[in-house]
Amino acid sequence: MTEVQKQESQKTVVAFITGLLIGGLLVWVFSATPEEKKEPTEKSAETKEEVVKTELKTAVTETKKEEVAEVIGTGSITVVDQKAGQTVTLGKLELPTKNGWVVVRDYMDGVPANILGAARYSVSEGLMPTVVDLVRGTTAGGSYQVVFYTEKGDAGFNISEDTVIDGIATTFKAN
User: Fold this and answer.
1) 3-class DSSP state for residue 40?
2) Residue 140 contacts by C-beta under 8 Å, 6 or more apart in sequence?
3) Could you tell me which of 5, 172, 6, 168 has the C-alpha nearest to residue 93?
């Protein structure tokens, strides 16, 4: 190891230790418990106003939480048994969300398996799929499942970010 490499290595170690010390100091400063404030026995008009503001903020927050909970509604998928091939024709769709995916996957022994294809839907964009194109076609005699997935906003299907919407699924056989 050359002298320059030794000096660079030492600088790296010193920078690392300095970072740990600064990080530890910041954790210590921000995790210290604040001193307890004594409540006044009689609330002033200003304090009452703050209480009302806090209650309003809480009500707004709870309303937003309820709106998020209502994002996923009831939905349904109808798919009939169909000829094996590179596409799956969808029947009637009742969408559980405003944006998402209709996904076709293998269905073996009652267990969903590999994803074969996905088609995006969007109420605001007027996207309503009638067919799902597959990466790998279905085979005669095979069972398949069609489910809804969420859309995390990137308009691309991503198995690690978009998640299956539980409780809404249908199966079909390829002939």
Assistant:
1) coil
2) 84, 174, 175
3) 168
Residues contacting residue 146 through CB under 8 Å, at least 6 positions apart:
77, 79, 88, 90, 102, 103, 104, 132, 169, 170, 171, 172
| 3-class DSSP state of 133 | strand
Q: Residue 151: name the closest of 74, 77, 99, 102 by CA.
A: 99
Rounded Cα gap, residues 25 and 31, in angstroms = 10
- E strand spans, the chain: 76-77, 87-89, 93-94, 99-108, 111-122, 131-133, 143-150, 164-173
Domains and CATH numbers, the chain: 76-173 (2.60.40)
For residue range 102-157, what is the model confidence (pLDDT) as tens digits? 999 999 988 999 999 999 999 989 999 999 999 999 999 999 999 999 988 787 88
Report pLDDT digits (tens) over 4-52. Answer: 788 888 888 888 888 888 887 778 777 766 555 555 555 455 555 565 4
The residue among 86, 87, 112, 102 whose CA lies nearest residue 162 is 102
Please name the amino acid found at residue 128. Answer: M
